[in-house]
Structures are given as structure tokens and as C-alpha cells.
Design brief:
The protein has 605 residues and is α/β, with parallel strands linked by helices. It has five domains: 133 residues, 3-Layer(aba) Sandwich (Rossmann fold), CATH 3.40.50; 63 residues, no CATH class; 206 residues, P-loop containing nucleotide triphosphate hydrolases (Rossmann fold), CATH 3.40.50.300; 69 residues, no CATH class; 77 residues, Orthogonal Bundle (Helix Hairpins), CATH 1.10.287.380. The chain is built from 19 helices and 20 strands.
């Protein structure tokens, strides 16, 4: 085994009255690939700063091989005193500045920067890319990376992944990006309750190992005080059960994707007037030929889609491609320059406030959930005690009176989730929901979305999260073109083919063109019977919906069953028949409309 270039032993550190680190350690040799994992607030970033020599521990030993170069990527880089990004990057080269001037420029170019940018005017993504170029440029012996993928788009993440894989440096990596952890790490260090445990395998094997450790620990503690263990360690032990349930959910998701791919037909042109009655029941939103330009640059060009109730749609692409623009057009917040978006009726939308701007730091956690009134939260029309609801989002009872301002980033993320899921909704819009979330919070979000009965629109750069959540992906193909693919992110890549870049221009096919039965316009025309049905079904569906509403009003009489049991039974039977007829009519109309689209709209109306 190679001698360590950097080692921490028995590191202890206390902030306030509670110890953050209590005997933690880490060892890195040349070429090591170490991922450092643990819940938000567990001390991962602090341990990395101690390794970088930026924080002094209360006790313990830090050893760094004399002459070894160590570079540390902070979550918040400091650009003070630098006039350009190139000057900032070159300052990280140290004694090798003259020899590596080209490498500094090369890395900036690879990361989409010129080197002439003013550091005070950088966006979050540009700042992160500049900081990455600075730590990568000297090709250090030890590379300490704290959340390197934050604010990076998919091309940037995949470039970083390839760059790290080819380096000879020993690497210690903190990240919420599962895919990056799985592909880079060969050793996993788990920081839990101030202590580090080491698994001599990569992150792909970590979670099953962690669950075994926790299950054994639970068994041991059970012998002493079962009640105490269940209350105090609920947050950690709850993860295991959720993961087992999630295996079934993942299986259900794969089945849903398969059905989604087999049943969904060509997007084509939608006759919105005829579809109006049907939109409230089955279609959530329809976009027909929408385009949007800014300053002469087209970011969305002639895009059409149909989103059906229960769909979970991911939107991916590089920064600046127009993901948020497309999302805002689909949800009606931004009008397209051309084309039309039609939203279904009775939509109740909730948007995840991942920037946490709506949180009041002076409120307690309980007040933030209840609105400061009482100790109950209304969830799904039912009142729940706030402490019980807090547990669903990994908060302990003792945190009820904790001020929001002192919560960690992951805890504020969970609080935002709790507030969002408490609101009645059937459409959830998530714009970069995984930023700054720890792995446990990501698991929680995946679980909640798996249970969510409504429709989800999601913008994300997290490849693993997309694979676990979405049923289709809308991806940029360049020049304002967007194409929808059935399945998750990995499914999209396989459909594009190995020669296609993840977010570059490709010859990918739309969701509709994957269905061989409707991939090309046919020369034949619709039959007279089908054309007549297509024209008359919307009126029939409207009549059925009105009849269903009338029957529901009759059944809303609480005394009907006692007073007129025969009428109650007759009305119930009629309601079931009307609902079945409406469902059949909706399915028939949708199939005929898809057929008309596949024929290029040639229904001879």
C-alpha cells in the first residue's frame, strides 16, 4: 500500500456545546479516489477544510507529505483581488505558473470561459467553472472537491467526470451527484455522528453496506433501550425501510415507462377547440408549435407536446439552452412568440421554492409549517400534528422550536419540501430541485414524487435523479430544437445512440416517431365513421360530464340513503355507468385524434 500523502487522525472539533467531529479521520495516497458522504450538517465540509489546512481542529493530527501540492475547491470561491478569471486561475498554479500558463487557458476554454471575464460579474455556473479550472490547472498531488457539480450543466458535469477519471491526483470528493460518485470513487468514507467509517469500495456499494451497519447497530441498541433507539435514531434507520420500498417504486416506474413508450403516439397538431372538453379530464397541457426568441436568438423552435395526467417529464440541456423558458411556456407563465399552449382546467400548481426565499429565518420550524397558527398542518384535507408531519421529512421532535435561520442547507431544503407537499396540488413544477440537497433528502424527494398522484415537470442536471423519477425527457438538440424521449436520462442516451453527445445536436427521434405504427404519414384517409366520431365525441363527453355532475349533486344529500335507499342505489349505479362511458369516450377520442395527427391532419373535415 502506498504511503499517504495526506492523513487526518482522531480529529475532534466542537462548535458551541455540541461536538461536530469526535475522532474522525481520513487518509489519501497518490491515485486514491475517495468519496466523503454523510448527512447535511454532519461536518463533511469542515473535515475537508481541516484536510486543506484552512481550519484548526481542537485535537487530533493532520499530516501532509512535505512538498505535496494540495488544492481545495470550496463551495463559495473567493475572487477578491482578481481582475480577470485567467488571473484568478493562474494564481492557483503556484510555482508552476510559467510552465502551466497554457493549461490555465486550456481549462477555461474547455469550461466555456475566455479568461477575460470580470470575476465580480460571474453567474453561479461561471464562478464554479472558474474555481474548477483553478484547482485542476496545477494537476495537484491531492485534490479536495466540495460539491464540484453545483451550478454545472450536464455537459459540464460529464466533462468534469472525464477529467477526474484521467487525473493521477489523489481525490477526495463530496457530492450529491450519485452518478459522479459511482463512477469516480473507489473508497467511501462515511461521516456519521462525528465518527468516520471506511468502506474499501466505491459509492455503488455504500448504501447497502450502510444499511447493514445501521441494522446491526439497531439490533445492538435494542437490547439496551428499544424505545430510546426508535426515537433518537429514527432519522437514520428510516432510510433503510424507505430504500426497500423504493425498490418496488423503481420497478413500478420502469413499468410505467414501458407503458408510456408503447401507448404514447405522435405529437403532431392538436385541434385545441375540439379537445377543450377533454383537457380537464385527461390532458394537463398541450403545446402546439411554440417558439420563443430573445434578442434574435431562438431558444425554442416549433415545439409541440401533449402532457397527460400522471406524467413526470424531465427537461435537460446545457445552461442557457432555454430550459426554464420552455418550462415557463408550458405552465403558462410566459407567452410564446408563435404557437399556442392550452392548459387543462382545474389545475392546482405548486412550485418548489428551492432558493428558500419564502422562508422566514426568525420563525421556528413548527411555525414555518403551521403558518404560526396552532400545532396542526392540513395535508390532503386532513389535519396532522406538526411533529408527526415533521418526522415524514426527517426532522426530530426536538427540532420543532429550532429557528429556521440556524438550519443547515439540507434541513432548509427538507422544510421547503414539507411546505410544498402540504399544499393541495395536482401539478408540481421543480426547477433544479436537487441543488444543495444531501443524499437522504434526495431519497425523500424521490419517495414523495413516487407517491404523488399528480403531474410533475422537472428541470434537473442530476442524471441519477432523472432516471429514478421521470417517465420522459425533453432534451435540447441545438438551434432551439427540443425532442421528447420516453424513459429517463439513460433511456434518452440509448435512444440517441452512443455517437450522440448528451446535450448536443443529434438525429434523435421524438416520442411520437418511436411508435412505428404512426412514425410516417400514410397515404390513406380516415374512414367516414371515424371522422364522424372524432367530431361528435367532444359533445358526448361534455354531456357525460354534466350528467356526472348532476348525479354527484343528488348523492351529496347526506340523508338520501336513509330516506330513499332505492333512489340512492339507482343513482350510484347510474353514476358508475356514466363515469365508465366518459372514460371510454375519452380513450376513443384520444386514439382517433392520434390517428388524425399521424395522417398529417388529413381528416377531410
Amino acid at each position: 500500500m502506498a504511503p499517504p500523502l495526506l492523513a487526518l487522525q482522531d480529529i475532534s472539533l466542537t462548535f458551541g456545546t455540541d461536538p461536530l467531529l469526535a475522532g474522525a479521520g481520513i487518509s489519501v495516497s497518490a491515485g486514491d479516489r475517495v468519496c466523503l458522504v454523510g448527512r447535511n450538517g454532519s461536518g463533511k465540509s469542515t473535515l475537508l477544510r481541516i484536510a486543506a489546512g484552512l481550519v484548526q481542529a481542537d485535537s487530533g493530527r493532520r499530516f501532509a507529505q512535505p512538498g505535496a501540492t494540495i488544492r481545495y475547491l470550496p463551495q463559495e470561491p473567493d475572487f477578491a483581488g482578481f481582475a480577470t478569471t485567467l488571473e484568478y486561475v493562474e494564481a492557483g498554479l503556484g510555482d508552476a505558473a510559467a510552465a502551466d500558463h497554457y493549461r490555465a487557458s486550456y481549462l477555461l476554454e474547455q469550461l466555456g470561459l475566455t479568461g477575460h471575464e470580470d470575476p465580480s460579474k460571474l453567474s453561479g455556473g461561471e464562478a464554479r467553472r472558474s474555481a474548477l479550472a483553478r484547482v485542476l490547472a496545477p494537476e495537484p498531488d491531492i485534490l479536495l472537491l466540495d460539491e464540484p457539480t453545483n451550478h454545472l450543466d450536464l455537459p459540464g458535469i460529464e466533462w468534469l467526470e472525464a477529467e477526474l477519471a484521467g487525473m493521477r491526483s489523489g481525490i477526495v470528493l463530496i457530492s450529491h451527484d450519485r452518478r459522479l460518485l459511482e463512477r469516480i470513487s473507489r473508497t467511501t468514507v462515511w461521516l456519521d455522528r462525528g465518527v468516520t467509517r471506511v468502506l474499501d469500495q466505491g459509492f455503488a456499494q455504500f448504501e447497502s453496506w450502510r444499511d447493514q451497519v445501521l441494522e446491526q447497530e439497531e439490533t445492538d441498541r435494542h437490547k439496551v433501550a428499544r424505545k430510546i433507539v426508535m426515537e433518537e435514531d429514527w432519522l437514520r434507520y428510516g432510510v433503510t425501510a424507505r430504500r426497500k420500498r423504493n425498490q418496488k417504486r423503481l420497478g413500478d416506474l420502469h413499468a410505467l415507462r414501458k407503458k408510456h413508450k408503447e401507448q404514447r403516439s405522435a405529437v403532431g397538431k392538436v385541434k385545441l377547440d375540439a379537445a377543450e372538453a377533454e383537457l380537464s379530464g385527461r390532458l394537463v397541457m398541450v403545446a402546439e408549435g411554440v417558439s420563443k426568441s430573445f434578442g434574435g436568438r431562438t431558444v425554442v423552435r416549433d415545439f409541440s407536446t401533449r402532457i397527460i395526467r400522471g406524467d413526470r417529464v424531465g427537461i435537460v440541456g446545457q445552461n442557457g439552452a432555454g430550459k426554464t423558458t420552455l418550462l415557463n411556456m408550458l405552465t403558462g407563465k410566459l407567452a410564446p412568440d408563435t404557437g399556442e399552449v392550452k392548459l387543462g382546467t382545474n389545475l392546482a400548481e405548486v412550485e418548489l421554492d428551492q432558493r428558500r426565499e419564502s422562508l422566514d429565518p426568525a420563525q421556528t420550524l413548527s411555525q414555518a409549517l403551521t403558518g404560526g397558527a396552532g400545532d396542526t398542518v392540513t395535508v390532503g384535507g386532513q389535519n396532522r400534528h406538526v411533529v408527526s408531519y415533521m418526522k415524514d421529512f426527517l426532522f426530530g421532535p426536538e427540532q420543532a422550536n429550532t429557528p429556521v435561520g440556524v438550519l443547515s442547507g439540507g434541513e432548509r431544503g427538507r422544510l421547503t419540501l414539507a411546505r410544498a407537499f402540504a399544499k393541495p396540488s395536482n401539478l408540481m413544477v421543480l426547477d433544479e430541485p436537487t441543488n444543495d440537497l444531501d443524499l437522504e433528502t434526495l431519497e425523500l424527494l424521490q419517495e414523495r414524487l413516487a407517491d404523488y398522484a399528480g403531474t410533475v415537470l422537472l428541470v434537473s442536471h442530476d442524471r441519477d435523479f432523472l432516471d429514478r423519477v421521470v417517465t420522459s425527457v425533453i432534451a435540447t438538440e441545438g438551434d432551439g430544437r427540443w425532442i421528447e424521449y420516453a424513459g429517463g436520462y439513460s433511456d434518452m442516451l440509448s435512444q440517441r445512440g452512443p455517437a450522440k453527445a448528451a446535450t448536443g445536436v443529434s438525429g434523435g427521434r421524438s416520442r411520437g416517431s418511436r411508435d412505428d405504427a404512426v412514425s410516417k404519414p400514410q397515404s390513406r384517409k380516415m374512414s367516414f365513421k371515424d371522422k364522424h366520431a372524432l367530431e361528435t365525441l367532444p359533445n358526448q363527453m361534455g354531456d357525460l360530464e354534466r350528467e356526472i355532475a348532476r348525479l354527484n349533486r343528488v348523492l351529496s344529500d347526506a340523508n338520501l340513503y336513509t330516506r330513499q335507499p332505492a333512489k340512492f342505489a339507482e343513482t350510484t349505479k347510474a353514476l358508475e355507468a356514466a363515469q365508465a362511458s366518459l372514460l371510454k369516450a375519452e380513450e376513443q377520442w384520444l386514439a382517433l385524434e392520434m390517428q388524425r395527427e399521424a395522417l398529417g391532419g388529413t381528416s377531410d373535415r
